[in-house]
Design a protein that fits this description.
By secondary structure, the protein is mainly alpha-helical. It folds into two domains: 63 residues; 65 residues. 76% of the residues lie in helices and 0% in strands. It is built from five helices and no strands.
Length: 139
């Protein structure tokens, strides 16, 4: 990679970090790690779509503040899916409740009752899968 391309990539990382953090960081902290540790840090940073410096800063600040760092990359994706699933559960719950209310009022099962029950089962199955994925990422 040319020096100009490296400078451009470095500038892009700094802009991305500034944008993600909401402010510029001007104080530097230097740490020393061996090549194996650096490889571990780089891999973990990549998995969270962060630079090594941003990753180390995020984790160190979380430890200093005794807080939980933001969710890792795979957990962020799972959280987004969980939020979408919550909306689906609310919708299917409303529809299923209306279908059951019709069944109770008329004694006849509406044609969409089975469809809503199957859909509810599918959504619950997806929630179970997400719970399993989350549990694999927890200590």
């Amino acid at each position: 990679m040319s020096e100009q391309a490296q400078d451009g990539a470095s500038a892009e990382r700094q802009r991305r970090r500034r944008r993600q953090q909401g402010r510029s960081r001007c104080c530097r902290v230097a740490i020393s790690v061996d090549p194996a540790e650096h490889a571990e840090l780089a891999q973990a940073a990549r998995s969270e779509e962060l630079t090594v410096s941003a990753f180390v800063a995020e984790k160190a600040l979380a430890a200093a503040r005794r807080t939980v760092p933001p969710a890792a990359g795979p957990l962020r994706d799972t959280l987004a899916e969980l939020i979408r699933a919550t909306v689906h559960v609310q919708k299917v719950g409303t529809n299923l409740n209306q279908a059951v209310a019709t069944l109770n009022a008329t004694g006849q099962a509406p044609s969409n009752l089975i469809h809503y029950a199957r859909y509810a089962s599918t959504v619950i199955g997806r929630l179970d899968q997400m719970a399993a994925r989350i549990s694999r990422h927890l200590p």
